[in-house]
## 1
Amino acid sequence: MEREAAAVVELRDIEFAYTKEDTVLKSVNLTVQQGEWIAVVGESGCGKSTLVRLLNALLQPQSGTVSVFGEKLTEHNAPLVRARIGMVFQNPDNQFIGETVEEDIAFGLEGLCLERAEMERRIEVYTGKLNISSLLLKHPGELSGGQKQRCAVAACLSMEPEIVVFDEATSMQDERSRRELLDVIRDMKEQGGYTIFSVTHDVDEMLAADRIVALQNGTIRADCAPTSFFENKEWLRDCGIELPFRLRLEQQLKARGIGQSEISKKLQQPGVKQAVEGGRVRDRLDESKREEKIE
Ligand SMILES: Nc1ncnc2c1ncn2[C@@H]1O[C@H](COP(=O)(O)OP(=O)(O)OP(=O)(O)O)[C@@H](O)[C@H]1O
């Protein structure tokens, strides 16, 4: 289903604070067109989750306006807007209602007043896409963190919302599942024209998006294509993002005067491909070491 491009989200002069002492978002302005995939990135605590929670009025700004689907968000239209926005959070435990995975997905669909056959079709399609068909009769408590996340994504997508917000929704996935999940998001975007926000620390997810919106201390530090973002060392440093191994390698090859098509060929050569995969795993290990240090 092709959807016509139009501004689907507009944030104007947003200021937001949880407490009087600390303003979390300052002078945030952002326009997002229908069908765009936005990766919201930045250091821990810079305001990413706060920003996306404004979109369905889970939080309300102290000043400025949030418009979604062309309408200013108010307490009156918030319930209608929420029905068109799907959100998947980092901690899936808080999102389960049903006694089994199937019941949980069906519970959300019942709210849409769908016919039984359509509910069954959606459950089959989305659990198939997320590779969780074998978990349908399990109790959510029996699932691993990664399986719970995939179930939460399936439940969200089965509602077929127009905007989908993934707030670190791939953080508990192993490497293969993370890539599979990214493929599902890519497919959604290509086939359905969904507008996607992904709050992420994952470089592959950033690279897959159309646009990076990078926050630093509650203001937008950069808003551009992923390639431009990863070329700017200052932005990367200020937003606490390390250049991934593959991009570091590409930049070194470019610096030696090797053209892009030649670089792409080289990266596909078996030995080089393995080294890149190894580098990706090392990058992840470095990431988890950093997280351990922070904890
Ligand atoms: N409910 C709350 N009450 C008070 N302060 C909060 C609350 N939620 C978040 N904050 C604070 O607001 C700031 C921004 O938090 P937010 O969760 O938006 O950051 P983030 O960029 O998503 O972080 P992370 O990458 O660690 O998830 C942080 O300083 C955080 O401590």
Note: Confidence is low (pLDDT under 50) at residues 290-295.
## 2
Amino acid sequence: MVLKKSPSVLAEFVAAQAAEERRGVRGLEECRTAFATEGAGVLSDDEVLQLVAAGTIPAYALEKHLHDHVRAIRVRRALISRASASGTLETSHLPYHHYDYSHVHGQCCENVIGVVPLPVGVAGPMRIDGELLHIPMATTEGALVASTSRGCKAITLGSGASTVLTRDAMTRGPCLQMPSVLRAAALKAWLESDSGLADVRAAFQATSRFAKLRSLKIALAGRLVFVRFTTFTGDAMGMNMISKGCEQALRLIQERFADCDVVAVSGNYCTDKKPAAINWIDGRGKSVVSEAIIPGAVVRSVLKSSVDDLCRLNVSKNLIGSAMAGALGGFNAHAANTLTAVFLATGQDPAQNVESSTCITLMEPANDGQDLRISCSMPSIEVGTVGGGTVLPPQAACLDMLGCRGPNRECPGAHAQRLARITCAAVMAGELSLCAALASGDLVRSHIALNRAVPPTPASTPQTSVTPQPSAADLRTSSNKGSA
Ligand SMILES: CC(C)(COP(=O)([O-])OP(=O)([O-])OC[C@H]1O[C@@H](n2cnc3c(N)ncnc32)[C@H](O)[C@@H]1OP(=O)([O-])[O-])[C@@H](O)C(=O)NCCC(=O)NCCSC(=O)C[C@@](C)(O)CC(=O)[O-]
Ligand SMILES: NC(=O)C1=CN([C@@H]2O[C@H](COP(=O)(O)OP(=O)(O)OC[C@H]3O[C@@H](n4cnc5c(N)ncnc54)[C@H](OP(=O)(O)O)[C@@H]3O)[C@@H](O)[C@H]2O)C=CC1
């Protein structure tokens, strides 16, 4: 938000407008007294605005003082409207009514001015590990849900998706500084000793019923010591949980090493919300691999492609093309597309799509070349079914659809692992369909049909000598010889 007026001008503006427009609004001092003695609930909106403009009530604390989410948002919108050049927010289409704000404050967002509804489509059903599931996807990219659905159909007509979870451990990598390289090496040696690890583990695990410290990975950069805490976090994605545990462990380390200076609880050795090879190689969150066999007939009838064309495209694009581009975990077509849509629908932290969507997609002929084998290997899917946005009712409803809402009380961690497996299978469906569309030359056509609201009519097309665009069929014959 850009405030175009200074706070004092703003105060005058609000006060003057309130005085002009609403006779009977109490003056500032009277409002202050009423607020101090009876609370903000007894004030009119204009009176509250005066107090906010005068700095008596911080704009971000309106919920706390008004005990009414909708009213707090209404007052905040009025304040921003009157303080900004455009002045549009108060009456804008950003909705704020008919929303359950009870879980928002203190967990999901501050300074709320409304909600941005996203369409949620459903892909599937897809058979995943023997179970038929419908997958909710929040997106504004037309064709994405249709494409994932097509992939789900092809997979389900084939073997179904099988998934394996190879690792489940969230990481946090604080940065510590020692007085010298020798002292840094001494700290490293202690952390790597059985007794050091046991002491750190005890301190760390005392902060949570669910966190289990699996290992420490230590790297030195001069006298800086980076410690990657690798932790099981139950059904939580785990960043708050593990950061809390790290803080406690760092206190213990400082008790043992009085010359240890904690530079930051996150030293980017985690690595959270940034591309990094360490996540691609060692994994972060859940590491999952999904696989399916698609019969050749289904490749032809549902995907409009062939086994050979898909394998050739996968090697050329997802492996060689990505290598040529210097990809870091991006050996796929659009894992981030499907994953982010599932993340948004199910209340995951959207910024973690950076590392969560790293994926290598492999395709090879199966059953003597008749059928297609596809797999997606995703080392860093960071998901939870408790905490963060998972508590919001719409997101929780999507988790319910997938049978993994909230904590799994019998087997903590099973819900989050299930969500990671489903996400990996959904990504595989998206990979299959987009690669097929690219192999058959259908990508652009499908996006013009499903991802652009008003196709140009002949009347609105410029009558200049534009080279005619090839049709999908032309593209198919020219660029994909041998396609079905
Ligand atoms: C759009 C299709 C699926 C049509 O594909 P089609 O083969 O013409 O579809 P169809 O009419 O024969 O239907 C086949 C199945 O697709 C599904 N399907 C079909 N239409 C719908 C629909 N409207 N709504 C829901 N589901 C739909 C549905 O499952 C249907 O089975 P049915 O239910 O009829 O038995 C196909 O052309 C396609 O997959 N295109 C690719 C679109 C895509 O994947 N877009 C993703 C974004 S691309 C991008 O952003 C990333 C990129 C490209 O830049 C990354 C890169 O560099 O590679
Ligand atoms: N702090 C940071 O640096 C970062 C924070 N985030 C944000 O962190 C939030 C998520 O943090 P996260 O730690 O996942 O969630 P929470 O902070 O909500 O922690 C999980 C809570 O759920 C409790 N719990 C109950 N049942 C279970 C169960 N079955 N499994 C696991 N925990 C259970 C835990 O208990 P107990 O108290 O016993 O552990 C804990 O209190 C998101 O909003 C995300 O955006 C994202 C990146 C970085």
Note: The pocket of 3-hydroxy-3-methylglutaryl-coenzyme A (ligand 1) is lined by residues 141, 143-147, 149-150, 153, 302, 304, 333-334, 337, 433-434, 437, 442-443, 446, 450 (CB under 6 Å).
